[in-house]
Predict the 3D structure of the following.
Amino acid sequence: MKLSCAFLQLSLAILYQVGHNQVLSLDNGLALTPPMGWMHWERFRCITNCTEQPNDCLTEDLIKSQADKMVSEGYRDAGYVYLSIDDCWMAKERDNKGALVADPIRFPSGIKALADYIHSKGLKLGIYEDFGKETCQGYPGSEFYLGQDAQTFADWGVDLLKLDGCNADVNDMKTGYEAMGEFLNHTGRPILYLCSWPAYVQKIAALSDYTAFKKTCNQWRNFDDIEDSWDSLYSIIDYYGSNQYNLSAFAGPGSWNDPDELIIGGFGLSPNQEMVQMGMWAMMASPLFMSLDLRDVQPESKALLLNKNLLAINQDPLGKQGLRLWKINKAEVWSKPLSKPGSLAVAIINTDNQGAPRVFHLSPAELGLPQVPKYNMTNVFTNKHDGPYMFSQSIKFIINPTSIYMVIAEPS
Ligand code: GLA
């Protein structure tokens, strides 16, 4: 039923809006480097009882307060430009013309006015919908309304759409997500397209079509939601390490694997574990969507989110997703080629959570370095430059439990 509806909406769009010879693919020219911004979900969830939780309630004032901090605290100027509202922003019913409406109590000015505010700050507004009958939290989904909703978002001035896949048939997703991509294109407004489709079909080999994901979406979720804990964080890193060749081949300018939001500045990670997330999201060329309360950030977390070396690795124009070279005895090494010739980012993670720091003696070959006589290293967290090291020389690293050592290595 939904499949035929998606086809119907798609053919209507083609017939009435663009003629008959369009190629079906994403052509919005966006996301040449991994997108950066803020997303409400992991930190603020579906908190809609504003009497009970006034400080955390999902309202237009909350979104505006985060926008203000993105500017005043330097996040926007560091590259975090998207500010994305997730699930639970809507009223429970569409209006009498079938259009989506924002919750009138929590978003009394409406999304268009909010977009104007966000744009006036030099930021871009993101929004959430679901391909199925209802969103994951039970708000109206886009089933039967894909074209209308795409136009509504464009009319409001939305710059990013995260399209989730709850309450939908996985067999319809390829057609439906492609149709929504086309509807977005046809609005004429460049709208960054985030797809959750891969996460819903990833366990069904026949439906896990990365060529199609890449052709259709700017970024795609392919694994579980991140939660506020080390176990959740490491399960994502390990999934990426274990499936890296299937994933990294499809990442690059315009299209990115999305391991989910940054939980730095939340409640669940130690400072060392926060370094692991920021380091690994840089290594994996992952979209950087912070999910924290920007009104209340510890200085160490802020410094990590704004670390220039890490952002440069993440945003490197080559757009290579880093690979795990090895994983032995609760330690692993990852490597990411950078655009400067011969230059690599290297991460060593100690995933052991037993009390004491561990010592590692690693050769350049074990770090995946190319065979040049000498090279220098910059510690990305301290910005301390070391070297030159000889290629024949092993290097000693002392790494805390569940922590990371990360360098940029360059021929000397
Ligand atoms: C799914 C998504 C999350 C978030 C919630 C909202 O679980 O994967 O990122 O958007 O829905 O309900």
Remarks:
- Residues 11-24 have pLDDT under 50 and may be disordered.
- The chain has two domains: 2-222, 323-411.
- The two ends are 63 Å apart (CA to CA).
- The CA atoms of residues 191 and 371 lie 44 Å apart.
